[in-house]
Amino acid sequence: MATMSKNSRFKGVLFDLDGTLLDTISDITYALNSGLQVAQVEPITPAEGKGFVGRGLKNALKGALESRGKIVTPERLDELVGEVMRAYSLHPYRDSAPYGGIEELLNDLTKRGIVLGVLSNKADSLVQPIIKGVLGHHPFEFIRGAKEGWASKPDPEGIYAFSQQLRCDPSQLLLVGDSEVDYYTAEAAQIDVAIVTWGFRSRKSLEEAGCTNLYDTVDELRKEVFPWL
User: Fold this and answer.
1) Over the Cα atoms of the chain, what is R_g?
2) Candidate from 7-11, 131-135, 199-203 with smallest mean pLDDT
3) pTM for the full model?
4) Domains of the chain: total
5) Angle, nearest 10°, between helix axes 25-38 and 57-67?
6) Domain-located, residue 1
């Protein structure tokens, strides 16, 4: 079980992107609906979209299709993912914005010498411009999305890559995310984890998935996890 050392001074903090740093659900839903439209399937709402994200756009689209009773071949799914990526790449952060208090937290962590990183299951070709476009004024030293040849969360490979870049033991890192995928990733790497409930999963669903170390607000996260800020 991943645990939280509340008095720790971490060397690095690795953040999930969607639902943790940024509210991106409108842009994600727009992109997914572009694929659903090509498949002649009824669009989903942002509220529905929250339930499909966390394991990459391909799995999100597959879940959205299945929710409408549409089963497609792997080849057709790849074609539809291509449409989703095309639509998303045109407007990667049109309606996306940081959650309240996130930028202040990032600023304060930076002032204390904590290295910032991003680890997402969204395609790296989207993660890079989104971070640059919305949070580019913050000094993220590690930004990693999904890419061929890289294992995605809950595989801990991304955490190990971050620790290697920092030349520190993984135990000196903290993962902050909003889903059970993030929690399982931290468990796999045996590092501290903080799971927030303001993102794309409800507290109830997180608890049912076995997640602990839950935080409802940025202020609560600051006080409980970073009392030395």
Assistant:
1) 17
2) 7-11
3) 0.92
4) 2
5) 60
6) no
